[in-house]
Automatic annotation (TrEMBL):
Record has Hydrolase as a keyword: yes
HAMAP family listed in its UniProt record: Nuclease_YqgF
Annotated protein name in UniProt: YqgF/RNase H-like domain-containing protein
Biological process, per Gene Ontology: rRNA 5'-end processing
Molecular function per GO: hydrolase activity; nuclease activity
Pfam families assigned: RuvX
SUPFAM superfamilies found in the cross-reference section: Ribonuclease H-like (SSF53098)
Organism encoding this protein: Phaeodactylum tricornutum (strain CCAP 1055/1)
Keyword Nucleotide-binding assigned: no
Source organism superkingdom: Eukaryota
Matching InterPro entries: RNaseH-like_sf, YqgF, YqgF/RNaseH-like_dom, YqgF/RNaseH-like_dom_sf
Domain YqgF/RNase H-like: residue ranges: 18-122
Length: 190
């Protein structure tokens, strides 16, 4: 019985202290948030950037915040089926995962997590804070916060790891290793 309780406790707290970046990806605006537990904070809203620029900005946030996980909201229809935005997000996540592996190494996980109703919840929160404030000021970053809240509340259960083809993983790891060796050599020359 004690072993079972310890197992449940260990599972429940496995995300505690894990710093994560949450991303609510969109073609016009992308919200970014950060958390180390159950109190996410909005970081920024990225506006009018293409997918590559959004990836670069998210990687910068991960570096700046020293996060070890990126949680991207997966947009689905209410019934759980794939929406038009789902495919766009999956393409974005593949690029983000590849860049993350190349720039940050294998220690940073990239995961997808169901984001249904997060924009509505973010709009309701914004309206309750200030009914006269325009919703689009912080909506996307607030949605990224809610994605992280839900992810942590569910202890990451149901999250899907970003999948890359094995050849891309191998190429990205070699890129990261070369980059790391070049940085080490440059540091030693100083």
């Amino acid at each position: 019985m004690i072993d079972a309780a310890a197992s449940v406790t260990q599972e429940t707290y496995s995300l505690l202290g894990v710093k994560s970046i949450g991303v609510d990806y969109g073609l016009v605006r992308t919200g970014v948030a950060v958390t180390v537990g159950y109190d996410p904070k909005p970081l920024t809203i990225l506006k009018d950037l293409n997918a590559t620029e959004v990836c670069d900005a998210v990687i910068r946030c991960v570096r700046l915040e020293q996060a070890s996980r990126i949680v991207v909201g997966l947009p689905l229809h209410k019934n759980g089926t794939i929406a038009e935005q789902t495919n766009l997000t999956l393409v974005f996540v593949a690029e983000l995962a590849q860049k993350s592996l190349q720039e940050l190494g294998p220690g940073v996980k990239v995961e997808l997590f169901d984001e249904r109703y997060t924009s509505k919840a973010a709009a309701a929160r914004a309206h309750s804070r200030n009914p006269h404030q325009p919703l689009y000021g912080t909506l996307d970053a607030d949605a990224a916060c809610i994605i992280l809240e839900n992810y942590y509340n569910d202890n990451g259960l149901g999250a899907q790891p970003a999948h890359l083809r094995p050849d891309i993983v191998e190429e990205s790891r070699r890129f990261y290793e070369r980059k790391t060796m070049d940085e080490d050599a440059s540091y030693k020359l100083r």
